[in-house]
Amino acid sequence: MGAGNQTGVSQFLLLGLSDDPELQPLLFGVFLSMFLVAMLGNLLIILAISTDSHLHTPMYFFLSHLSFVDICFVSTTVPRMLVNIQTQRKDISYIGCFTQVYFFMVFAGMDSFLLTVMAYDRFVAICQPLHYMVIMNPHFCGLLVLTCWLIILFSSLFHVLLMMRLTFCIGTEIPHFFCELTQILKAACSDTLINNICLYVATVLLCMFPLTGILFSYSQIVSSFLKMASTEGKHKAFSTCMSHLTVVSLFYGTSLGVYLTSVVTHSSQRHSIASVMYTVVTPMLNPFIYSLRNKDVKGALARLLSLGAPCL
Hints:
It is built from 10 helices and 5 strands, in the order E-E-H-H-E-H-H-H-E-E-H-H-H-H-H. The strands form 2 sheets. Strands 3-2-5 form a 3-stranded mixed beta sheet. It has a single domain, classed as Rhopdopsin 7-helix transmembrane proteins (Up-down Bundle). The chain starts with a strand and ends with a helix. Residues 1-7 have low confidence and may be disordered. By secondary structure, it is mainly α. Helix 1 (24-51) packs antiparallel against helix 2 (58-87) and helix 1 (24-51) packs parallel to helix 9. The relative contact order is 0.15. It is globular. The chain has helices at 24-51, 58-87, 94-127, 132-135, 138-163, 181-187, 193-227, 231-265, 268-292, 295-308, and strands at residues 3-4, 11-14, 91-93, 168-169, 173-174. Its main location: membrane. InterPro entries: GPCR_Rhodpsn, GPCR_Rhodpsn_7TM, Olfact_rcpt. It comes from Muntiacus muntjak. It is a multi-pass membrane protein. Belongs to the G-protein coupled receptor 1 family.
């Protein structure tokens, strides 16, 4: 294969999770089911929060944004995979692949940012309860979300613009079910040193800083727990944090699992399978984690479904 510049590459080949023809119907059914569950679950969370005045608080404002981001997150990767399985094709256009890289980075980054903002919200609610509504006012909450969007939109754009300067071989194969930045860089025919340096720097700034913020917030929350004399107060404070802690553990745990899998095994197929956890499974489970352990959300969902029942 000869190397061609970016204008000469019309498409990439996504190898997917398996080449076995007998597994394709099973993969299609499993991923379609998970996609629909993720879409429906997160959509119900958004509708419940927007229609129930009891949930018009900072915590649920951030939760509705997290559900919106999760809908976009799964929509970035799964539909294209389903189309490729159904049509038995592996190609994706050059522009389509880079567009997928961009939006994947945007929504993955927003997930991380929103989880950090939600941790800060819980920190203020538990450690500074008397000043909570003053600090977490609607203007400040909106500004936090807007800042997160601006940072991740421009950061992702920077990576894509850097990637567009690379050259690729004709018929470049990507051993994944979607266009992932690291896999694209490995497939490039030109030097990717600058891209890798920028990627590592961005990983530290946009992943490690948010995680550090979450850990700091919960260290302060635990300190406040220990100072509480009332058992009921401890239980109430703990219950408001448990769902968020579960989602944080799921998101960062699966992300770390993907990284360790790629480092330890050096197997592209195992890396792709592990990626399913944080790209599809986590967005699918988030609505259940927040609704099953939260009486307010369960009540709002029950009222929402009861209103829609006569129309069914």
